[in-house]
Design a protein that fits this description.
alpha+beta, Structural Genomics Hypothetical 15.5 Kd Protein In mrcA-pckA Intergenic Region, Chain A, nine-stranded mixed β-sheet, four-stranded antiparallel β-sheet, about 20% helix, Pseudouridine synthase, RNA-binding, PsdUridine_synth_RsuA/RluB_CS
Amino acid sequence: MERLQKVIAHAGIASRRKAETLITEGRVKVNGEAIRELGTKVSKKDVVEVDGLPIFQEEPVYYLFYKPRGVISAVTDDKNRKVVTDYFPGVSERIYPVGRLDYDTSGILLLTNDGDFSQRLAHPKHQVDKVYVAKVKGLADKKNLYPLTKGIMLDGKKTAPARYDILSTDKKTETSIVQLTIHEGRNHQVKNMLKAVGLPVQKLKRETYGDLTLQGLRPGEYRSLNSREINSLLHQAK
């Protein structure tokens, strides 16, 4: 038996807090009866409806995916481009990505059918470190990267302090390889941060997500997360 709001969140309908609001507003039915009690528990046999539409009580699943470049972080695309779920033909659950990676960015992407888990990790107040490696145009040094450690203004809002490491510079091609660690997830954030300090990104990869790495995976491959990894992510997201 699971609490009703948790079942709704796992189904990806809403966060657990939003699910509680749906329940108290009388928009949720169990076996045809409107439920307003937040403590209500349901089993796999119960029929749960939200706004008249039934939801499917799937077992939660969690995957780490090595997203290739040229793939959309979505489950569908109106332009018929390749999407991340195209790489999961044998998975019957209705999974979706946690956050996103740009079309031309590769690296770690998490996918799940657990809406509560996704909301916890994607919420801006939570601080799960993510490490990116970028090939940039220009010669990186402490002078141009230092402002990122204090936070810079992007679209009228200051970024959280980032950590950086200069992996290499090439004076001949005037390019550098920079590692950047952030915990936020704004749209195009890493690209915009590096562009703001005069180092436009040519190629970008997300190497780690919390404690998770791409070890053992090639682009387009995935694996399931184990319970220790799931609990570690949730702990970091507190």
